[in-house]
Each structure stands twice: as C-alpha cells, then as structure tokens.
Amino acid sequence: MGPLSGPRLPSPSTEGVSARRGRGTCPGRPLRGPAVLPAETYADSRRTPPGTADPLAGADDWGPVTTPAGPFRLVPVRVERDLPLLGRWMNDPAVAAYWELAGPLSRTSRHLRRQRTDGGHSLPFLGVLAGRPMSYWEIYRADLDPLARHYPARPHDTGIHLLIGAATDRGRGLGGRLLTAVTDLVLDRRPSCTRVVAEPDLRNIPSVASFLSAGFRFFAEVDLPTKRAALMIRDRVPHDPS
Q1: Distance between CA atoms of residues 28 and 148, nearest Å
Q2: Cα separation, 221 vs 225, whole angstroms
Q3: What distance, in Å, lies between the first and last C-alpha atoms of the chain?
Q4: How many helices (H) does the chain have, and how many strands (E)?
Q5: Rounded Cα gap, residues 40 and 97, in angstroms
C-alpha cells in the first residue's frame, strides 16, 4: 500500500465505503508503482465491442455464496424498489464524502439507471447477507470503462465497487470477508476474467485495507478525474513479484 495523501483521512468507520470510480474522461497519470503502458480498449467510446451482446452475461443470477458472516447473495438493483434505501445510504456523510451522490433521490436514480442503459458494462447490485440488504455493489468491465486509460488493461478485467450501508456493519472486518467472497464469485463465474481490479480513494485507509485483506495487491497510484486512487489487483493466478 503506497503513501496516502489528501487533506483529510477517514475514520475507521469508513471501512466498506469504497468510492466509485472518478467521473469524466480527463487523462490521469501513474504516481507510483509500475509504469502504465498504452492499452487497447473500447473505453473511450464506452460502447460494447462488436460481437459482445452482454459484457457481463449471467451476472444477474450468479447465485448465493457462503461466507464466514452467513449466506450472501448479489441481487440486481430494482430502482423502484431499492431507491429509498440506497438514497438513505448515499446521504450518510461518511458515504457522501466518497460516492458524491448525496442529495435528492433523483440523483441516485440517474446513477443507477445510467448503468442499465450504458452498454451493460456496469451492473448495480444489493448485497444481501443472511436475508438482510446491507451493501451496494457495482460489478463492471474495467477494460470497457474509462479506468482502462489509466492502467494496462487486459480483456475481461472486471472491477468492483463496494458500499456497506449501515454504520453498524462497518469497521469490523466485514468488508474484507465480503470482498473475498464476491471476488471468488467473479473469478468462478467469469472464466475469461484473469483478474479483478479496484480503485479505492487513497484517503480511505480502511477501504484499501479491506481490499488488501481480500487478496488484492497494490499496483499503482493513479489520478482519476475526482480522486487519487490506489489501483488494486487480485489475480486469478497468484502474482509472482519476482
């Protein structure tokens, strides 16, 4: 984990408040870590590549997994059903500092609906633990996302964003356990994916720690349009640092 920067540091209660990727298209640069090489990507157009009807085929029905905290399932977000809950989470100051979706429900609604109409390369889910909705997830094709301009993306790289909704569920290691389970699920259900990536805000120390505890490794610091991020990677085959 590289050095942290920024005007403030989050409290331990922000574990599980992993910021969404930066908005916009302005180019970034690696600050520390391996050199970033040019990558062939469809991210600039944000369109699904020719011949790929569904970049995350089957993700809406990946089924339940067993975790140390209980049975866990990713349930596709239904805006009409889930917007009040997600809007409440997004207006929690600890969440708003990183997700930047505080305000009227219409703001969160636009964010959710855009994912379903933006080529299908990013899908929103509720995380349901032991029958209780307690987290929000975005599973996305990182190689088709603007993030791919900031690192040497590989075909089918898959990204994860995580938000643990209730403050009582944060700060006790739950984020790392759920990240481990969901990353295992992605790699199991997507055989073409060789690695899972994440880009938590560098200021969010507990979030970075959660990804590290889930088997991710620090790859580089990158400047995204709205944050300086720690680019984290978990490889299907364990990485050999030599």
Answers
A1: 11
A2: 13
A3: 18
A4: 5, 9
A5: 33
What are the strands of the beta sheet with 195-198, ordered from one edge? 30-32, 217-224, 227-235, 195-198, 158-164, 132-141, 122-129, 70-76, 65-67
Distance CA 212, CA 234 (A): 9
Q: In 3D, which of 99, 85, 89, 88 has the Cα closest to residue 10?
A: 99
Contact partners, residue 161, CB within 8 Å, separation at least 6? 18, 19, 20, 21, 137, 138, 140, 198
For residue 104, what is the DSSP state? S
* Beta partners for residue 135, in sequence order: 127, 164
> Residue 74, exposed/middle/buried by CB under 10 A (0-12, 13-18, 19+)?
buried
Beta carbons within 8 Å of 110's beta carbon, 6+ residues apart: none
Helix (H, G, I), strand (E, B) or coil at 213: helix
Is the backbone of residue 225 left (phi > 0), alpha (psi -120 to 50) or beta? alpha
What residues are paired with 129 via a beta bridge? 72, 132
DSSP letter at 238? P
What single letter denotes the amino acid at residue 37? L
Average pLDDT along the chain: 81
Burial letters 182-191, b for 16+ CB under 10 A, else e = bbbbbbebbe
Predicted confidence (pLDDT) per residue in 143-197, tens digit: 999 999 999 999 999 999 999 999 999 988 999 999 999 999 999 999 999 999 9
**Residue 138 and residue 116 in contact, taking contact as beta carbons nearer than 8 Å:** no
Tens digit of each residue's pLDDT (9 = 90 or more) over 47-104:
444 444 457 877 778 889 999 999 999 999 999 999 999 999 999 999 999 999 999 9
